[in-house]
Design brief:
disordered N terminus, globular, about 35% helix, about 375 residues, alpha/beta, 4-stranded antiparallel sheet
Length: about 375
């Protein structure tokens, strides 16, 4: 039985074992309201990471497999709910947060859990920040240290008018590589984890391979940045939407592979137009150090993420069935007659939470 309400969804399941339903707090969920002592169950606050530190602020003791596969940061999509689901399916994919503006982190320093907290199961996880004020980028990075992200990434690729236009950051930053180098130096100076840049191959008419090389050279030479995630399309800032910027500008993978050749000491992850595990492995065989997938991993998480651990990392999968993934992704509440999976989201519509769950069952 499925029941839709404005802020809730209830799905009834037959019992699969008393051990699953013995406690209503068995499975951690980000952002849900549940029955219990909220103050004693703050699973996702900064205090959770203190015991993971290895003598230095922001250094996580555990080591992870390389970022051969990652899920792209996507606004309104790669939130805590999706990342919890993704981690249940793949234990080794690198996950990214949505982009968070540095100004938001700085101005909300007394409410950081709302923006930066996450389940410890989501490691390895990268925090992506955006901004055009070096002081705020540095301060935001410093504030984020308490949450022990595994890498800090600067967004230099978003073509949204709110970001690249009015906000003067995102892909607009590619037009000022000197500034990006200074920003990355400030970010790196305030964290002990690696830093990286996600960018396009160009902006409007500034789309030659030489201009891309100039950007990579300046940022890598004058900052500690050694990892670049390259969306292999340029961005058009006037006249088309962010969605059209993901399809109208042609893919130029030759730019990406040229960077591999011309900057052998740097690490490059390819992004854009790759939508299957077969294509991921083909890109890696062609020399890509890593591959990032966006909407394909969101729209079809089981088919994409379900094969990452075995086909890319060569390790066993999580072993969970789709049903088990669904049950473990959200709080389970039990009444006297039957177990019921209950979602309550007072600050969100149902779609962002339910869609990736539906997608798990929608494809073979």
């Amino acid at each position: 039985m499925m029941k839709f309400a404005r802020y809730s969804l209830a799905v009834s399941f037959s019992p699969i074992g008393s051990n699953v339903f013995a406690k209503s707090f068995r499975f951690p969920v980000v952002g849900c309201i549940y029955r219990g002592n909220l103050e004693s169950s703050r699973l996702f606050s900064a205090s959770c990471w203190r015991e993971q530190l290895n003598g230095k602020n922001g250094v996580v003791a555990k080591q992870y497999l390389p970022p051969w596969f990652s899920v792209a940061p996507m606004m309104d999509w790669t939130d805590n709910h999706y990342r919890t689901l993704a981690r249940l399916i793949s234990k080794h994919s690198w996950l990214y947060t949505e982009m968070i503006a540095a100004e938001t982190i700085v101005h909300q320093k007394d409410n950081l859990d709302r923006f930066l907290a996450y389940s410890p199961d989501q490691h390895p996880i990268v925090l992506q920040i955006g901004g055009s004020n070096i002081e705020n980028l540095a301060k935001a990075t410093e504030l984020a240290n308490a949450y022990c992200y595994d890498e800090i990434n600067l967004n230099c690729g978003c073509p949204s008018p709110r970001v690249a236009g009015h906000g003067c950051f995102g892909v607009s930053l590619m037009l000022d590589p000197k500034f990006v180098a200074e920003a990355m130096s400030a970010i790196a100076a305030n964290t002990n984890v690696p830093v990286s840049v996600k960018c396009r191959i160009g902006v409007d008419d500034h789309d030659s391979y030489d201009e891309l090389c100039d950007f990579i050279y300046n940022v890598s030479s004058f900052s500690p940045t050694k990892h670049f995630i390259i969306h292999s399309r340029k961005a058009l800032l006037n006249g088309i939407s962010p969605a059209e910027n993901r399809s109208i500008p042609p893919l130029k993978y030759e730019y990406f592979y040229g960077l591999l050749r011309d900057f052998p000491d740097l690490t490059f992850t390819i992004n854009g137009g790759i939508a299957s595990i077969v294509e991921v492995n083909a890109a890696r065989e062609a020399g890509a150090h890593g591959v990032m997938i966006g909407r394909a991993a969101y729209n079809n998480p089981w088919h994409i993420l379900g094969h990452v651990d075995t086909a890319i990392y060569g390790v066993p999968s999580s072993g969970l069935t789709r049903r088990q993934v669904h049950l473990q992704n959200f709080w389970l509440s039990t009444d006297a007659s039957s177990p019921t999976l209950i979602f309550i989201f007072p600050h969100y519509s149902e779609f962002p939470i339910i869609f990736p769950l539906i997608a798990c069952f929608s494809y073979n």
